[in-house]
Amino acid sequence: MDTFFRRLDDNTIAVEVAENLYNKEAIQAASHRFKDRCHIHLKRQSETVVAVLFSAKSGTSDLEALAQEFCTELLDQQVRMNVEKACGNMRDLIVKQAFAPVDDIGAEIRL
Amino acid sequence: MSSMKLYQLLPFRFLRLNDDKYLVVNEVGEHLFLTGEQFSDLTSYGLSPTSETFLDLKAKHFLTDTELAPVIEMLAVKYRTKKAFLYNFTSLHMVVPTLRCNSNCIYCQVSKKDLMAVGFDMDKPTARRTVAEVVKHFETVPLGN
Fold first, then answer.
1. Which of B47, B78, B80 should be substituted to probe chain A, the one whose Cβ sees the most A Cβ atoms within 10 Å?
2. What is the pTM of this model?
3. Longest dimension (CA), chain A
4. Contact B10/B64 with Cβ under 8 angstroms?
5. ipTM of this complex
6. Interface of B with A (CB under 8 A)
7. Which residue among A32, A74, A93, B41 is least crowded, i.e. fewest CB within 10 A of its CB?
8. Residue B81 parent element (H or E)
C-alpha cells in the first residue's frame, strides 16, 4: 500500500503536498493547526511539491497519526478556499446590501 | 452559474466535528449538521436537487438553484435584522467623575491617581451635562433595548 508520508528519522516524518492540488495558503493554515502538538517545518521539495515536516515534541506520541490527521485538515482548508472562491463577492455584497443598498445588486455579483 | 452545476453555493463556514460530522453555518445564523458524505456532495456539486439534504440546505440558504440577486437581497434583509443592535446607541454608560482612588482593582480601565492629587476630578458643569445626556438617552430608548 502507498504511504502518504516519508519517515526521515526516528523523530521526523514528511508529508509531500502537490501545489497543483492544494494552495499554499491551505498548506500553511493546516500546518498552523498542528503547531501546539509537534514541530512543523515547511520546505520546498521541488517546483511543484512542498514537504511538511513533522518533528516530535516531548509528549508527541504518534507522528504518523498526526500526519494522517494533517491530510484531513489540509483537505478541509482547501475546501474552505474553494467555497470562498465559488461564492465570489457574495459575502461582501450581503453586508453591503444590508447597510448601503444599491438599486441593481445583480450587476455587482462577481463569481 | 456554470452550466455543469445544478446549484450555486452561498457563503458559509464549516467545522469538522469528527470524521463523519460537519457543522455548517452562514452569515444569517442558520446552521446544519451534515455527514461527511453529505458535506462532500455539497461542496463537489453532487447533491441531487430532489434530496432532503438539498432541500434543507436550500431552505437555510447554503445553496440556491434560482436567480442570485433576489437571494442576496433576502440574505441582506436577514443580515440587517440580525445586526439591528448596531443601530442602537450604547445602553451601558460608565461615568468616571474622578481618577483619584484608594483601590487598586486589576480590572479598572483608568489610570488612578493619588487621593490628594489635584486636577483629576470632573468639574460640576461637565458632570451635570453627563447626567443630562444619560437621562436623555433613556428617555428616547425603550427599556430592554
1. B80
2. 0.76
3. 64
4. yes
5. 0.89
6. 1, 8-14, 16, 19, 27, 43, 67-69, 72-73, 75-77, 79-80, 83
7. A32
8. helix B68-82
How many domains does the structure of chain A reveal?
1
CA of A73 vs chain B CAs: smallest distance (Å): 9
Whether residue A93 is contained in a domain is answered as: yes
Confirm whether A1 is domain-assigned. no
Chain A closest CA to B51's CA: distance in Å?
A: 21
Among B16, B72, B77, beta carbon nearest to A93: B72
Which candidate, A3, A1, A20, places its Cα nearest to that of A63?
A: A3
Contact assignment for A79 to B43 by CB distance below 8 Å: yes
Query: Considering the domain boundaries, does residue A53 fall inside one?
Result: yes
Q: Which amino acid is at B8?
A: Q
Residue range A84-111, pLDDT digits in tens: 999 999 999 999 999 999 889 999 999 8
Domain range holding A42?
A: 6-108
CATH of the domain at A51: 3.30.1360
pLDDT digits (tens, 9 = 90+) for A8-65: 998 999 999 999 999 999 999 999 999 999 999 999 999 999 999 999 988 777 999 9
Distance (Å, rounded) from C-alpha A25 to C-alpha A19?
A: 10
